Amino acid sequence: MTSPSAITLPAAGTTPLLATTELQYASEDNAYGYGWLLDSYKNFRTAHFGPKVTDGSLSQNWVGSWIKGTSTRYDIVAGGPVTGAATGFERKYTTGQLAKVGLSLGSPAKGKTGEVAPSGILPGVDGGWSAWSLHKIPGAVTAYVSTADKVRWGFDFSQDGPADEDGIPATESLYSIAPQSLKAGKSYTKKVNTAVFGPAVTSGLGVLRDGDNIVGKLPLVADGRGNVGDSAYSSVNTVLYRNGKKLVQNEDPLSGVVPMAVPSGAADYRLTTSMRRSAKLSAVSTRIDASWTFRSKHTTAPTMLPVSTVRFTPNVTLDSRVTAGRTASVPVTVQGAAAGKNLKSLTVYVSYDAGKTWKKSTVKAGKLSVKNPAKGKSISYRADVTDKQGNKSSVSIYNAYFGK
Fold first, then answer.
1. Are residues 153 and 28 located together in one domain of the fold?
2. Are both 114 and 16 inside the same structural domain?
3. Domain identity same for 253 and 373
């Protein structure tokens, strides 16, 4: 006999966005998944038939998403290892069993919409479904998410562009807030898609050498909170020099999927890239230049190369603006090979005319004291960094943010 499936929320007036369940089988040699993608759990009944599966190879997950009004979501992910398919599934949640996540959605251009998709990850479960909801940006969304079954929650954000002939909007930028465990009854805040957008060099991201290929694998426009993502662009020019001579030139924004073939012998390299973005997509970080110098030779396994970058993290509004004319303290962080005690030198420059002229500024105790730009005007940053092994990196961010 089958039994009904239902998830009861601590709120009335919600509209279902997604309801799924999936069975996953995984052994040393094979993996299979079979599931149902539904609008809601209404009239959905399940039962297990056949012998129990007792070797730990079977799991089942349940995903449900709802929206209330225009800015409140409820997202539930439940499940884990099982010995058979569920004969019905019913859970009732109270507000105290959920975590509250306040999502602040930025927009570096006017008149935009954005989409949000909370994504719950269960241990031992491969992937899972999530539902997108559309919102005006800049704006805010509150997501109430489940916390049982050791679920970890990440959040994906998309800034939409003009729609195509089928009414589907283009994706102008896409950012992911890294998954984390959340506690029932607790409140959290997240911010995405705000300045300063620029390169990030963190764990697993940077420039690597794999045999006789050099691969750039780092986001050029990570947002001000360090959320990794991608952005549309008007142009990209990437050049790799070997011993001072141009070796490779392409239009790849260091996406990690375009290897650059190099000779096996040891040599001095300089990698440069320049990205330009339309102000209609983003009024800030309209041009980003970066370069790295390092010495490299053939490797027998993928090896990260000693590259660095500099991050600027001022407190900006959701439209990437600051109070005009005020003196502000801007945190400055070195990432990559030159971080921490391996830093030899750091020089920072500031521009108030979109990079036509630069003025050297001093970083003290990890912070830069600057005068905010005038109303409607921008500030730009440039940084040169050297590690103790002599590897050099530079980054220039044009129109980092504006005064208001």
1. yes
2. yes
3. yes
- When divided into structural domains, the chain yields a total of 2
Q: Please report, in tens digits, the pLDDT of each residue of the chain (404 residues total).
A: 899 999 999 999 999 999 999 999 988 888 889 999 999 999 999 999 999 999 999 999 999 999 999 999 999 999 999 999 999 999 999 999 999 999 999 999 999 999 999 999 999 887 779 999 999 999 999 999 999 999 999 999 999 999 999 989 999 999 999 999 999 999 999 999 999 999 999 989 999 999 999 999 999 999 999 999 999 999 999 999 999 999 999 999 999 999 999 999 999 999 999 999 999 999 999 999 999 999 999 999 999 999 999 999 999 999 999 999 999 999 999 999 999 999 999 999 999 999 999 999 999 999 999 999 999 999 999 999 999 999 999 999 999 999 99
84 - beta bridge partners? none
List beta partners, residue 208. 215, 304
Residue type, 283: A
**Structure tokens that stand for 252 in this block:** 């790849």
Bridge partner residues of 225 (DSSP): none
